[in-house]
Design brief:
There is one protein chain. Helix content is 49%, strand content 9%. By secondary structure, the chain is of the alpha/beta class. The protein has a five-stranded parallel sheet, sandwiched between helices. Helix 10 (179-188) links the parallel strand 3 (172-176) and strand 4. Helix 2 (41-53) crosses helix 3 and helix 3 (59-67) crosses helix 4 (72-84). The longest helix is centred in the first third of the chain and has 17 residues, at 18-34. The chain starts with a strand and ends with a helix.
Length: 232
Amino acid sequence: MSFRAVLFDVGGPIDLEVRHEQLVDEYLQRALMAVGVNVSPEQLGAASQWAVHAYAPDAYAAMIWKLCRGDEARTLGAIQHFAESAPERRQHRGGLELRPGVGGVLKSLTDGGIRLGLAANQPAAIVDELDGFGLRQYFTHREVSGHHGLRKPDTRLFLRACEDLEVAPSECIMVGDRIDNDIFPARVLGMGTVLFRTGRHIEQQPRSLAEVPDETVHSVEELKSALERMIW
């Protein structure tokens, strides 16, 4: 199999999201307190693990549902409070948390003639943030869900990227941190896959052979080696 392109998720492989997830947990607790549900950090952590293992499409909403013990009114109220906190969370975060060394991987791929694209559930503004780190230049396909409204695991997002890169799905590798959003839909299309284990979904496990990635990595160094094995 000959690969000519690589798609990257932003959150996880490129963006560390450490501060992001810390703020998520903090504001989840605030949202729950607003509806009369007080939870400890341990309870929040247990709910996070449950949501990940349950393959919840929206882990944050699932955590709220779990911690509200299925109380519909409190769940809806907490979800609303959490959603309304998004601008404040973005302000406090201060922007993308670039993973050290990932820029070198992107450069080596483009220097080797590999086309790069984004495949991410992100607001359109993330492209400008990548540009601030000098990374936008490496991507030929620069659209994310905020541009076209398609969200993973919708395979149309991947197909749109492949079309823009002028490659067949079988000529493309997907690098992401979630089995449900990144690995499985990419495999359905016949793409190569690399699971970058990091962040909230680090312990998510395949439920069948169809969800097993071609490569699993835990660092930028391992990512570089895995892509070199697959491409060259």
